[in-house]
Amino acid sequence: MSDAILKKIPLDMFWPTFDPFLFCAFHNDNYPQANGEMGPDATLGNRPLGQDFGGIDGWRMYHGRKVPGFPAHPHRGFETVTIVNKGFVDHADSMGAAGRYGQGDTQWMTAGQGVQHSEMFPLLNETDRNPVELFQVWLNLPSKNKMVPPHFTMLWNEDTPVLTEKDTQGFETSVKVIAGPISGVQPAPCPPNSWAAEDQNQVAIWLIDLAEQAEWTLPAGAAGLSRTLYFFEGDQVALDDVSVSVSQAFVLQSDASVVLRNLGKAARFLMLQGRPINEQVEQHGPFVMNTRAELQQAFQDYQRTQFGGWPWPRHDQVHDKNKGRFAEHGKLD
């Protein structure tokens, strides 16, 4: 194994993460054509609705019963970064904010002191299939920012910078820069209270596309960072001349460069990097705090306030199916 590869881990739906990251889910569903209510035009009687994670016929309803996705649920103490490569997400929250994003867009939401939101996957095509592919990454907040006001930022696809480089043979690699600069390419601003907002934390979230036969060098970062490369689409790639297969994660030495050489079909990677926060983590479901007492307080606060209540007619709120991509921030800054 290359000296730069510290560990390799097989991938399933929920990917291994390391401080400052808490969680990474990869949703890849090939939904059928839509019915008139933005749900799948298919029988749902064979599914455990409300808890459908089995992947029957190549797709899941998750916690949705009519429309796939995640109806209203609370968060406190961390951030969600939702990167949608295919399909759409309808956002609604307890502060009255709403949006529809997808086809390359990213939503970066700071839950902070507490917010309820729903994330539904509206199926809009009634004549063909509705593929949905997205990552949701949970980035922890340091104790000083656990209770900041909720906030979300939209990183629209057309405004998200991409680094494009060609190797000596003319084969291309592109890097979508969601967080963290690379080779002079600067990302769009992230939420102001994020761990990623402080340059010294060197948080990076990059989507890397390696063409067939392409070779590209992942540049070294600083020492002491968490750095994980997820190989989620393709066939065979060499990392520093070590042949590796798809559906694996590689924990890398952060201050070493790594040469990626594609040995098969076009390959895709997600890279997560950041300086560890190095604080105690107490997590239960949707709440992430530093102590058990803070965690108990989060539950008490949610029971008492519902983090602002739910101003929408449905807990699985979807927006007008004829509406395009949009964001309305409501009371969120």
UniProtKB/TrEMBL annotation:
<dbReference type="InterPro" id="IPR012093">
    <property type="entry name" value="Pirin"/>
</dbReference>
<keyword id="KW-0479">Metal-binding</keyword>
<comment type="similarity">
    <text>Belongs to the pirin family.</text>
</comment>
<dbReference type="InterPro" id="IPR003829">
    <property type="entry name" value="Pirin_N_dom"/>
</dbReference>
<feature type="domain" description="Pirin C-terminal">
    <location>
        <begin position="208"/>
        <end position="308"/>
    </location>
</feature>
<dbReference type="Pfam" id="PF02678">
    <property type="entry name" value="Pirin"/>
</dbReference>
<dbReference type="Pfam" id="PF05726">
    <property type="entry name" value="Pirin_C"/>
</dbReference>
<feature type="binding site">
    <location>
        <position position="73"/>
    </location>
    <ligand>
        <name>Fe cation</name>
    </ligand>
</feature>
<dbReference type="InterPro" id="IPR014710">
    <property type="entry name" value="RmlC-like_jellyroll"/>
</dbReference>
<dbReference type="InterPro" id="IPR008778">
    <property type="entry name" value="Pirin_C_dom"/>
</dbReference>
<feature type="binding site">
    <location>
        <position position="75"/>
    </location>
    <ligand>
        <name>Fe cation</name>
    </ligand>
</feature>
<feature type="binding site">
    <location>
        <position position="119"/>
    </location>
    <ligand>
        <name>Fe cation</name>
    </ligand>
</feature>
<dbReference type="GO" id="GO:0046872">
    <property type="term" value="F:metal ion binding"/>
</dbReference>
<feature type="compositionally biased region" description="Basic and acidic residues">
    <location>
        <begin position="313"/>
        <end position="333"/>
    </location>
</feature>
<protein>
    <submittedName>
        <fullName>Pirin domain protein</fullName>
    </submittedName>
</protein>
<dbReference type="InterPro" id="IPR011051">
    <property type="entry name" value="RmlC_Cupin_sf"/>
</dbReference>
<keyword id="KW-0408">Iron</keyword>
<feature type="binding site">
    <location>
        <position position="117"/>
    </location>
    <ligand>
        <name>Fe cation</name>
    </ligand>
</feature>
<feature type="region of interest" description="Disordered">
    <location>
        <begin position="311"/>
        <end position="333"/>
    </location>
</feature>
<feature type="domain" description="Pirin N-terminal">
    <location>
        <begin position="66"/>
        <end position="139"/>
    </location>
</feature>
